[in-house]
Amino acid sequence: MKPIYFSCGPSKKFPQWDSNMLNSEWLNRTHIYDFKQFVYGILHQMHRLLNLPNDYKIMFVPASGSGAIWCSFLNLLLPERKIHIPVSGYFSRVWAEDLQKQFGLDCNVIEYDEKFNIDCIDQNDDYMMVAVDTSNGMRNLQILDNMSGLVLMDAVSAVFIEDIPWTKVDAVSFAAQKILGGDGSLGVLVLSPKALERLAVDKPWPIPRMFNINRWSLENVENGQFMSTPSILSLIELSHILNWVEQNGGVPFLQQRNEDNWSVMNKFLDQNNKFESLIKKPALRGLALNCIELQEWSAKSVKSEERMEFMKEISAKAKKLCVYDIANFSNPSWRFWLGPMQESEDIAAGLDRFLSLF
Asked: Where in the chain are the domains?
């Protein structure tokens, strides 16, 4: 029986992946000298594929997506500025807690749901958002048109398939392993001209050497300098992934593959009214994944503890059918990764096996 993987980070490898592609002239070489040109080429290619504004900067930072978002916190936020944070799931709540307890910032934490109104955000303050919270699939791409404060976005489960409003955001963090299926360790940070102005302002807290953009100089990091020793294997793999994406049409190609995967999921839900999406309003569902639950859970107000036990039981049985990584422990539900590295026929087969357990 063919194994079917629904892991959301690292997600499934792209179709042409082969371990032989990791053989490279750059293995056993330092990352400090010539290798920087290779890295610069990857950054330039991502800048082009994402259609970033010409004056936006892109750089690698250590520690994957979490490192990238923390790098933006450390280098851009200021203690005298209030920050608004809509929260809807695990990751948005974690970042809100970090900004309150670790940085001691004045935070306006807002519950993000169908009733959320972007007009509650003060345009003069800073704004921190999670584009798609991987814990439940909730999407938030709502941003005021006239923000004078900085807009920071955790885009780990959104970049490359969601339509990111680049001209409205100032610091966007993501990781290669989510949407693109790369290996871990590589964080990416995109900065707007407004963010670069804030970068020049002195910060009152210590910034670890491996996250201090000014310590290494903006010019160096945007040209391939690493603030800490990188995984050369991960960079080699990412280069192959980006080449595959570009050769097949870029972001629109990824978006079409993702749309095809959603068609399979929607067909499954249409034909099996036993299940429903955890996020009820389609406009609030991120494109990378869908968490589903039993309809009766809501109708009969089943307790969270009972949902969790049943979810774990079914997920364990799914493993015996070679359907892996569908357990969602953040919100009792089954999480199916629908990103563009997945194949539609695998998703269909995985959902059929899942259905056989009921």
From this structure: 4-10+249-355, 19-247
DSSP 297-358: HHHTT--HHHHHHHHHHHHHHHHHTTEES-EETTTTEEEEE--TTS-HHHHHHHHHHHHTT-
Tens-digit pLDDT profile for residues 205-252: 999 999 999 999 999 999 999 888 888 899 999 999 999 999 999 999
Question: For 50-67, what is the mean pLDDT?
Answer: 97
* Residue 320: Cβ-neighbour burial (10 angstroms; 0-12, 13-18, 19+): exposed
What is the reported pTM? 0.96
Q: Which of these CATH numbers, 3.40.50.1370, 3.40.50.720, 3.40.640.10, 2.20.25.110, describes 19-247? A: 3.40.640.10
Identify the band that residue 160 occupies on the pLDDT scale cut at 50, 70 and 90. very high
Contact 223, 60 (CB under 8 A): no
Find the mean pLDDT for residues 11-31: 87
End-to-end CA distance of the chain: 20
Q: Which residues pair with 109 in a beta bridge?
A: 85
C-beta of residue 121 within 8 angstroms of C-beta of residue 84: yes
What 3-state DSSP class applies to 275?
A: strand
Q: For residue 11, what is the DSSP state? A: -
Q: How far apart are CA 69 and CA 94, in angstroms?
A: 12
Look up the CATH superfamily of 4-10+249-355: Aspartate Aminotransferase, domain 1 (3.90.1150.10)
The C-alpha atoms of residue 322 and residue 11 are separated, in whole angstroms, by 16
What is the chain's mean pLDDT, rounded?
A: 95
Q: At residue 214, what are phi and psi to the nearest 5 degrees?
A: -65, -30
CA dihedral 337, 339, 342, 344 (to 10 degrees): 90
Q: So what's the pLDDT on residue 172?
A: 98
